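Study this protein:
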Amino acid sequence: VQLQESGGGSVQSGGSLRLSCAASGLPDNTYLMGWFRQAPGKEREGVAHINRDNGGTSYSDSVKGRFTISQDNAKNTVYLQMNSLKPEDTAMYYCAAGRYSAFAERVYDYWGQGTQVTVSS
């Protein structure tokens, strides 16, 4: 399994970026894709998730209304459109792939290497 992120960079506050995650070799039961982020000294945060089967999405409160996760199943690619970026969005962003547990919890089995997003004020 490979997850390759791209699209990170530096942007000023209020700007936009679009991250891409190209996936390959995913097992058939990989129904879940997500974006996570981690800033230095902080815990990893799940910011957006998408159900690959029905397209259902969910977001953390910190990004709701500003970020949009989407997918192109034909290209096995997931995107994260980030608008109205703030300095506190600065972090390494990771793509992940996984499944739902028997208790309908998200379980992420595969991770990309990450792409850095830096937002300056």
